[in-house]
Amino acid sequence: MTPPTALSLVATCALGLEELLAAELAALGIGTSETTPGGVRWQGSWTDLYRANWRLRTANRVLVELGRWSAPDGDALYAGARALVRGGAGVERSSALPPGTWFDPALPFALAATTSGSQVRDARWAVMRVKDGLVDAQRERFGRRADVDRRDPVLPLRLRLSGDEATLLLDSSGEPLDRRGYRVVSRGAPVREQLAAAAVLASGWDGSGPVVDPMCGTGTLLAEAAAVALGLPPGRLRESWAFTRFPGFEPRRFAAIRAEPLPCPGPDLTLHGNDREPEAIRAAAANLARAGLRERTQLSTGDAFAFTPPSGPGLVLVNPPYGERLAEEPTQWRRLGDLLKQRFRGWKAAVLAGDAGLGKHLGLRPRRRLPVRNGPLPMRILLLDLY
Ligand SMILES: C[S@@+](CC[C@H](N)C(=O)[O-])C[C@H]1O[C@@H](n2cnc3c(N)ncnc32)[C@H](O)[C@@H]1O
What we know:
The chain is of the alpha/beta class and 387 residues long. The protein folds into 2 domains: 7-171, 2-Layer Sandwich (VC0802-like), CATH 3.30.2130.30; 193-234 and 265-385, Rossmann fold (3-Layer(aba) Sandwich). 28% of the residues lie in helices and 23% in strands. The chain has 9 helices and 15 strands. The strands form 2 sheets. Strands 1, 2, 3, 4, 5, 6, 7 and 8 form an 8-stranded mixed sheet that branches. A hairpin with a 2-residue loop joins β14 and β15 (377-385). The longest helix is centred in the middle third of the chain and has 20 residues, at 123-142. The chain is elongated. The model has no long low-confidence stretch (mean pLDDT 93). Bound molecules: S-adenosylmethionine. S-adenosylmethionine is lined by residues 188-191, 215, 217-218, 220-221, 275-277, 280, 303-305, 319-321.
């Protein structure tokens, strides 16, 4: 088997965002990628890995695939893990890594597992078998073993068992990429940052005109729209990623990536947020200030259905409440449809709806419906051109 010459990389995402994520990767110059449910894979370099962590708006994490092997039972799991560290047959190495670097016993690791359709159903037992294989091989090869550190590992490893196949991956992000660093106050049910970014990226908005959210909650949709229009990298307020502690990390290469300018299609952007809850507006003010956007933002407290937008056209984003009986009345959705029709003619719109089919009461035909998951909750992003 020829040894790999590149890194085998996987950016993971919420189900439904794969196409947008592949388009984001293409915009980073990564043209050839393979889309799988919940992720996009490609063969790439350390530069790709740094850039993906710094710039991807719709990804959850960026993982490096270390190896895969056939593992129908616990003994095979153990043997494959051991072969990965010792070298030898029985395991396919997926990424070109300097030999010996990765399983250096000086590097504390953590291991988490997921299983689907595998005969090995107990993820905790799978973790034990793979951990034993890794550390036994470390003892044989280096004379000592690495510590397990679940709280602050240098190497956060992930085991995926799918059918009879085991894959060992290294998480290069650490904290998931939705931790952008601007959410200083949370309340209610904020939409996840990747979904908010997805709504903006899928909306067809060119970055011109104002952005309005008449039910803005903590301001996530406004913050993500502003980041797209102003070319602000999603990682700009983060302090750490797992890869910055990996052996061979090149700080100067990462600094050069951080200095790369991003397209900035809306330099004069203004943001307009409204919510009926004063507490939500206080949270939005704090978060948008942390994001460096407060000076271009107008916030108001009041009923969305009485909101008068600034002159447009621009982008209107709405994430109405869901899971509340009153909020899910079809009449509320009709009122929202009327608001969009009457006050936002000529604008682009994205409405983040639950999956109860209430979107049909808007009385507007979406250009596209994007089914996605917000954590465990199924949702739809309705994309509309308001004529
Ligand atoms: C699902 S939350 C929005 C979460 C927001 N996208 C975020 O990331 O924090 C819905 C918001 O709509 C607000 N809301 C509900 N009905 C409203 C109305 N008629 N007028 C103004 N705000 C309303 C609620 O107060 C709540 O903050």
